[in-house]
Write a structure and sequence with these properties.
The structure holds two protein chains of two kinds. Chain A contains eight helices and four strands, in the order αββββααααααα. By secondary structure, chain A is mainly alpha-helical. Chain A has one domain. Chain A has a two-stranded antiparallel sheet with strand order 1-4. A two-stranded antiparallel ribbon of chain A has the order 2-3. In chain A, helix 6 packs antiparallel against helix 7. Chain A is globular. By secondary structure, chain B is mainly α. Chain B has a domain of about 80 residues. In chain B, helix 3 crosses helix 4. Chain B is rod-shaped. The chains are: A mainly alpha, B mainly alpha. The interface between A and B is large, with 59 and 49 residues.
Chain lengths: ~250, ~190
């Protein structure tokens, strides 16, 4: 059964309750997913908190990492949304750190990947788009709708362009969440499949063990790739968040 | 494939473990719902995501980001301060060099002036001394000339007397007898004329 479990690439995404909990007919149990969400924020918070504890003028390695992340996200937001956008810095920084640390934790064997579930990434995406819409209307009132009416478009094309703009805006939360979810899901399935090959091939004796070197090498290479993807997807998520927030700040483009 | 058999084996403990998974774990529908699309887990995930992310956001906003921002601001302030300090020191050094050069120029001018004055004073004094000496010499020369003239005049007067004495002596020796003094004087006078 253990061997069979190892080659089941979907098993790693299963959610099982640790502390069953029901509120108002909904199952809100504390699951393995919740556990890893807690682990994600505890690890990220602890790292950021401890590494900056000395407040050194000349930073050590860990403090440098924290400062780099902070300035990296800060510059990203300033470039995309200007000085005004800096009021969203805590949001973008939290999103970046949360997604990054969740992705990285997921790379450890037997660990659950929080971001491999569409509902998690979709909730984060809705948080971003919700912030954009609420702030946009609060700041510009109905002027925010100018977002859907680009300048310099001839009148007869306007209905078509506006329709396209609205569709593209509505599809943003979907594309934002599916991009992250699909990348993490596909990466982990691929890793699991190749690792499974190693186990399955080893079962065929000496030849199998010799042959299992190939999928093993592949799994090693994929692990490196997944490390890159983990960072890249966190970066992409943060960059797109910055660009959408820029729309909320400056709707007429 | 072994995937389905794994599921069959997996389903049993899952069903026994939690009532929530009972529905999905029953292998009646050949395929169990793909976990990420299993809507039964959505409320729990959303709730716990909201709780954990909310706490994370608050912690970063209240504690971590002010601290990181503070560290970076302090460093930037320190760098600006150091640069300002360096610029101020450079300004001071430049000012000192300028002041030094000005003083040097002033000192040169002063030295020239003092030298010139000393030179002029020395010249004037030398001139004065020379003039006084010249005047004194002139006076002495005049006195000397006057005394020479008087001595000469006196000598010239005595020459006549000597000549008369000599003449009378010579005449007495040659002629003998007494000689008339007045005659001799007249003769000397006529001879010396």
């Amino acid at each position: 059964m253990a061997a069979a479990d190892k080659v089941d690439p979907i098993h790693q995404f299963q959610i099982h309750p640790i502390i069953p909990l029901h509120i108002g007919g909904y199952d809100v149990s504390f699951t393995n997913s919740s556990l890893f969400m807690v682990a994600t924020i505890v690890l990220a918070s602890a790292f950021l908190y401890m590494s900056t504890a000395s407040r050194a003028l000349i930073p050590g390695r860990l403090q440098s990492v924290s400062e780099m992340a902070y300035e990296f996200v800060g510059n990203m937001l300033r470039d995309a949304a200007g000085k005004q956008g800096m009021q969203f810095f805590p949001l973008v920084f939290s999103l970046f750190m949360f997604v990054l640390v969740a992705n990285l934790i997921g790379l450890f064997p037997y660990f659950f990947t929080v971001t491999s579930h569409i509902i998690v990434t979709f909730t984060l995406a809705i948080l971003v788009i919700g912030t954009v819409v609420v702030y946009g209307f609060a700041k510009h009132g109905f002027g925010f709708l100018k977002l859907f009416v680009p300048h310099g478009v001839p009148g007869y094309l306007l209905p078509l362009v506006v329709a396209i703009e609205i569709i593209s805006f509505v599809s943003r939360p979907v594309s934002l969440s599916v991009r992250l979810f699909a990348n993490m899901l596909a990466g982990h399935i691929t890793l699991k499949v190749f690792s499974g090959f190693v186990v399955s091939l080893s079962a065929f004796g000496a030849v199998g063990i010799a042959g299992s070197v190939l999928p093993l090498a592949m799994a090693v290479a994929l692990s490196a790739l997944e490390l890159l993807v983990a960072f890249l997807q966190a970066y992409v998520f943060a960059v797109l968040t910055c660009m959408y927030l820029n729309d909320a700040l400056h709707p007429s483009h | 494939m072994f995937v389905t058999s794994a599921y069959a084996q997996e389903a049993a403990p899952a069903a026994a473990e939690g009532d929530t998974h009972a529905g999905t774990a029953v292998p009646a529908a050949e395929h169990e719902a793909f976990p990420p699309f299993d809507a039964k887990t959505f409320p729990s995930q959303i709730l716990w995501l909201v709780i954990t992310f909310g706490l994370f956001y608050l912690f970063l906003k209240r504690v971590v980001m002010p601290r990181l921002g503070g560290i970076i601001d302090v460093r930037n302030d320190r760098i600006t301060q150091d640069l300002d300090h360096a610029a101020r020191l450079k300004g001071e050094a430049d000012a000192a060099v300028a002041a030094y050069e000005q003083e040097l120029a002033e000192a040169k001018v002063n030295a020239n002036k003092i030298g010139q004055q000393a030179n002029d004073a020395a010249k004037a004094q030398a001139e004065g001394t020379r003039k006084k000496l010249e005047a004194e010499l002139e006076k002495k020369l005049g006195e000397a000339e006057a005394s020479i003239a008087s001595i000469k005049a006196k000598a010239m007067k005595e020459v006549g007397t000597i000549a008369e004495d000599t003449t009378s002596a010579i005449v007495e020796a040659l002629v003998g007898g007494k000689t008339d003094k007045s005659e001799i004087a007249a003769a000397v006078k006529s001879a010396s004329r």
